[in-house]
Write a structure and sequence with these properties.
419 residues; alpha/beta; Purple Acid Phosphatase, chain A, domain 2; 2 domains; 6-stranded mixed β-sheet; 18% strand
Length: 419
């Protein structure tokens, strides 16, 4: 494992069971995350839009088609509840919030209850933009109060309890299950752009622990939802990707686990991954992270919540009208963007290396990222070859079997015990 550390060190340059049939009385829950919806009123064909799409590797028309397909699938699936774990909008545009809410209302009108929590791209974004003509132009964002008002019918208006320090709230799923929705964002600190990192305010944690104590006394199971990760999802994530976890994640995860939180639904890292952490006192909490609907692998989750377990299944959008191989196309786009960022950052770091070592570094970083975002990481031949070449270039010995590619449990199809 020690010899594998440089690989995960270099990853830091990229970012500055199975579902069961429906049980009697079970609640069907869907989860989506990070759709990064950009309303079409904010775009028109031109240099500004083309430059943006090329930079981020997303075609806005495709993302609209993907979201429409997911919502059409949800109308067929007919879940009782849809959870949205943040980054509803591309970059905080008020018009994008309005357009996304209109889509949510279509689900709500069909009897699907929708609950949301904000992400770091949703509130008080100073550099929200429209992409019309040749130059991107500023556009209006939303304040904390405006967000609360806009999404009133998606969790806030019928909350059991509200946190005075943030947009966190408590709601009821069933008589015996509550959902604790954490606002982990730093929008009040935004000055020039959004802040990627997140935290749970001390006042909010005190509020949450009081709720968990009450739930324990009443025999109520508590699940959670937040945008940022509660626990690590890959090796050395807290060291090299701290902005994708809440601050003091170990302390806070253990506090919540010991207080009785069983599962938390997260997003933010754009990967489909589930990780379990056990506190020193022996209490487990599962972080169920759902990938972005704006990036390969375009995942969402369908879950069945019973009295004693949560069964999780992952769905992937693989095609849309006009693009039958959506997976291949956007996997290539992600690979291209990842490689560009990787090579640029390696050059900026000015690490002395031969061209062969430079290529080996890049290949390993890119391939590791691509397998992580899909979940259930397994080293395939090209991956093994890239790692082997990297190890050879570094002059190190390395046992592939010793590498922990994926923290347990499974990521895409699994059952989580609740009692």
């Amino acid at each position: 494992m020690r010899n594998f550390l440089p690989i995960f060190l270099l990853l830091s340059i990229l970012f500055s069971g199975c579902a069961s049939s429906r049980q009697t009385g079970a609640v069907k829950i869907a989860v989506i995350s990070d759709p990064h919806f950009l309303d079409k009123q904010l775009i028109s064909n031109g240099e500004a839009l083309s430059a943006y799409e090329n930079r981020v590797g997303r075609e806005i028309d495709d993302l609209h088609s993907i979201l429409d397909k997911v919502f059409a699938d949800l109308l067929v699936e007919a879940p009782d509840l849809l959870l949205v774990t943040g980054d509803m909008t591309n970059h905080g545009e008020k018009q994008s919030h309005l357009g996304f809410i209109a889509k949510l209302r279509n689900l709500q009108d069909q009897g699907i209850r929708v609950l949301v929590i904000p992400g770091n791209h949703d509130i008080n974004i100073p550099d929200a933009k429209a992409y019309r003509g040749d130059i991107a132009s500023p556009t209006e964002s939303v304040t904390k109060k405006e967000f609360e008002d806009l999404y009133a019918s998606f969790g806030y208006s019928d909350a059991l309890k509200r946190d005075e320090a943030s947009l966190s709230y408590l709601t009821q799923i069933t008589d015996s299950v509550w959902l604790l929705c954490f606002d982990t964002n730093r929008y009040e600190e935004h000055r020039t752009t959004s802040i990627t990192g997140g935290r749970i305010l001390p006042q909010t944690m005190k509020w949450a622990l009081t709720i968990l104590e009450e739930a324990k006394d009443r025999g109520v199971t508590v699940l959670g939802m937040m945008h940022h990760g509660l626990v690590e999802h890959l090796l050395y994530q807290s060291a090299f990707f701290p902005q994708y976890l809440i601050d003091d994640w170990e302390k806070n995860a253990d506090l919540l686990a010991d207080a009785g939180l069983k599962v938390v639904f997260t997003g933010h890292f754009h990967a489909n991954d589930v990780t379990m952490r056990t506190s020193p006192a022996g209490n487990a909490v599962y972080d169920v992270e759902t990938a972005s609907l704006a990036q390969y692998p375009f995942a969402y989750r369908i879950m069945m919540l019973g009295d004693n377990k949560l069964s999780i299944d992952s769905r992937f959008v693989t095609s849309i009208p006009g693009k039958s191989d959506l997976t291949g196309l956007y996997k290539d786009k992600l690979e291209t963007i990842t490689r560009q960022v990787t090579e640029r950052r390696l050059e900026e770091l000015r690490i002395p290396m031969s061209p062969e070592t430079f290529k080996a570094f890049s290949d390993v970083i890119v391939k590791l990222h691509l397998i992580h975002v899909k979940g259930d990481e397994r080293p395939y031949p090209a991956m093994k070859l890239a790692i082997r070449l990297f190890a050879d270039q570094m002059g190190s010995e390395f046992d592939l079997k010793s590498v922990e590619f994926d923290f347990p449990p499974e990521d895409n199809r699994l059952e989580i015990p609740l009692r």
